Amino acid sequence: MSVKAFKLVSAVEREMLMGDKNYINIECIECCGKNLYIGTNDCFIYHFLLDEKVSAAGKITFAATKQLHKYLGLKKPVSELKAASALTRLLVLCDNTITLVNMMNLEPVPTGARIKGAVTFALNENPVSGDPFCVEVCIISVKRRTIQMFMVFEDRVQIVKEVFTPEQPCAVAVDGYYLCLALTTQYIILNYNTGVSQDLFPYCSDEKRPIVKRIGRQEFLLAGPGGLGMFATVDGISQRAPVHWSENVIGAALCFPYVVALDDEFITVHSMLDQQQKQTLPFKEGHILQDFEGKVIVATNKGVYILVPLPLEKQIQDLLASHRVEEALVLAKGARRNIPKEKFQVMYKRILQQAGFIQFAQLQFFEAKELFRSGQLDVRELISLYPFLLPTSSSFIRSHPPLHEYADLNQLTQGDQEKMTKCKRFLMSYLNEVRSTEVANGYKEDIDTALLKLYAEANHESLLDLLVSENFCLLTDSAAWLEKHKKYFALGLLYHYNGQDAAALQLWVKIVDGDIQDSTRSDLYEYIVDFLTFCSDQDLVWKYSDWVLQKSEEVGVQIFTKRSLEEQEKNNINPDDIISCLNKYPKARVKYLEHVVLERKIEKEKYHTHLAVLYLEAILQRKSVTTDNCTETTELLFKLRSLLQKSDLYRIHFILDKIQGTDLHMESAILYGKLEEHEKALHILVHELKDFHAAEEYCVWNSENRDTQYRRRLFHMLLSVYLNPGTSDCALVMAAVDLLNKHAAEFDAALVLQVVPDSWSVQLLSPFLAGAVRQSIHTKRMTQTALGLARAENLIYKHEKVKQKGTPILLSDKKVCQVCQNPFCEPVFVRYPNGGMVHTHCAAKKHLNSNMTHHSSSSSNQT
């Protein structure tokens, strides 16, 4: 695909060079700075000064001013010209002789220094001598198969090396010690210092003109077979793909990143970056094409022209305007070597951004995203394409010159709703990715607000995730947008995030009450309860407590029961205040008291008594309606009994008074048990309820955490109730037998045998008797074991005492107290483990030294 990379501009018109002399032809050219030298077929050298002019419209023209001309007097064409600016010399090849002339006056050097026998020559642009005041020249000698290296100074020449080639050379280019040669049938690389050569590829010099051109350090461009422009390094390899020329290429030049080629009718321009042909310029009768320090000059026999490169930025912009993104990016990367680093970075980022918008407009979203990221796009450039997404308070102004040609998304999609939806989905995805990266720094409010608007408009599930996590959504813009799209629950979350819990609750309550419609959450009531449960604003909790309790007492009470203890203490919430509030809501009141008594385990009599009374009242109320125990009544009875059994804090007599006259016999028994009136309790269980199992259980739970004697006393009481002389109920007799047989260990067998009727057979009581005997034997053995252990322990103590006595201690009137240094007057003393002896009154003194005190703590007194 074509791109306008060069413009052909005339430099030297025919009339300036030859006037009306048609026989004069241009043979060669050389350009050094503004100096243009032309060699003709009539042995003349012309010197022009080229002046580049740029018009207001940016058009470039060249004005050539003739300085002088010089006739060499050989009547032979001037074959080649090469400028050595460091020496102010011009090397002129004419009639197989290279002559040194002054660049300014074109006069030969006074010494007459010259090189004879040269067919063609090339300068070494990567010299190896290191001498700044000489030029290294390589010539193809008239001698057969001979190459010669010379050092050319200001007024003399010096041969350095002569190298022989396997075939006759036709063309040469030099880089350091390396020569790239076109021989008769092939191209080769030859190191003239070592003599090592490397074959490249074959060609036929009889069929086409060879081209050998140095294009960079240790790299050459060659005219290969099949119309290919081949790149080769001094190692004999190609690091670039070839370019496709025509078969009859005459010359080639380099102007990075382009390779320019000349044939009979055209000038073609190929990119070195992607090897594609970029431009074709018609140009007939051309026979010279050369580049000089970035300036490409082409000539016919009669005139000289300059290929002026268009600025790379303009070429890139032209490619982008044609939506040729890949080519533009390749060219931009290649331009790095020609542009200062900082300027290139700025330019390249902008190009990436422009390319990203082109891909975006073509709905190539993945490619667009990568380009936006690489180009570090200010994401607001993208957001600004979407109407009303940027906050009204945003100070963003689009880049100038603009990065794209679109006013907004409507223009870009031409009203296509499907395309618009895809673009919005892309922006949602892109903003979600970049909002937590460095790309968002400095304008997180713009990004999050835009993302919220997109989510709300698309009814996207991520809207709620955005609002419940850290975000920077602007309240004013976001609230208006959410209200517009009837996202009232989300609006409440926004208010909550911004510390406006009252506004949030007001909205949510309206949704639940049906004043406004929002189906985001079907469980919004439960959500409000949870919200109030963890709300730190005590006033809000009290404000909405009636509302949540009116909706559901069981659920609403959770604003108090699920609140953490730390939160309640922090906000100084008094349970009494809560109970007062709940007086209108009996179910909630019971739930809360259960929470206080059973879960928080607050040990206050009034709460325990209150809960028991509520249970009792609820049971009696239900029993007054129906005599059948429904599930709720059964559950309440279980709760009441559990509370009466486990709690010791309620007012027993108060509850007992309320139970009197009812059929709550089990509860009465429990209360009598709490009053230690066990005979009354057991009488109720046995004679009124006839629940023998409950009577046994009564003995068990009432004796928990009590000693064995207390437990035994309860079981004996129960047995006495069963065997009351005033009763002859067979059921009671059997209950007594079962009690004895099941709980033999809980009875004193001797006492039992005294109270059981004489008419009972041994067989009837055999399990009890067996258990009693077994228990007696077990008790005896355990007692014997304990006695044996005690005796063994006593023996150990005695042994230790004997060991402590040790060897005898001798006391005489010659021994003195270690404390007072006085002799002992009586056989009473204190001996320390270290063997020291002191008076008893000295040992008692508190001012003993610390060492003595330490030993006295473990001492043994012996008298």
Low-confidence segments, given as residue ranges, are 850-863
The biggest sheet amounts to: 4 strands, antiparallel
Measured between the Cα atoms of the first and last residue, the distance is 124 Å
**What shape does the CA trace take?**
elongated
Characterize the structure shown.
With 863 residues, the protein is an alpha+beta fold. Helices cover 42% and strands 21% of the residues. The strands form 8 sheets. A 4-stranded antiparallel β-sheet has the order 1-28-27-26. Strands 2-3-4-5 form a 4-stranded antiparallel β-sheet, with no helix packed on it. The longest helix is centred in the C-terminal third of the chain and has 40 residues, at 766-805. The N and C termini lie far apart (124 Å).
Defining traits:
863 residues; alpha+beta; 4-stranded antiparallel sheet; 32 helices; 30 strands; disordered C terminus
